[in-house]
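stage 2 :: seqdesign
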């Protein structure tokens, strides 16, 4: 388990991080799994936004559409939808308006 790079992390800081990781392990928490879950959450929040998924869909959808129709659709999304929903993680969006998938907010 990496604790940081020298000289950015001092030896004392590395020892503190090691001790904290040992305490988590003693409490039944896997620090590596915890770190991986945090990285996955960041990835989901940044790479799976409504705008990025919509742009991927648009590239797929435009295959048999005219260039003018595809451009109009993209411009409408950029003007009307992305300012409101563009940065939202896709996991938060549900058709029934409940909130996060699998949670009954």
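stage 2 :: out
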């Amino acid at each position: 388990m990496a604790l940081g790079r020298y000289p950015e992390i001092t030896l004392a800081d590395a020892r503190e991080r090691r001790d904290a990781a040992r305490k988590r392990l003693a409490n039944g928490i896997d620090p590596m799994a915890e770190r991986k879950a945090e990285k996955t959450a960041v990835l989901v929040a940044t790479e799976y936004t409504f705008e990025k998924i919509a742009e991927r869909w648009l590239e797929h959808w435009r295959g048999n559409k005219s260039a003018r129709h595809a451009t109009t659709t993209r411009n409408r999304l950029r003007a009307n939808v992305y300012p409101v929903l563009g940065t939202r993680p896709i996991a938060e969006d549900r058709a029934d308006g409940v909130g996060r998938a699998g949670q009954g907010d």
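stage 3 :: structure notes
- Confidence is low (pLDDT under 50) at residues 101-105.
- The first helix runs from residue 11 to 26.
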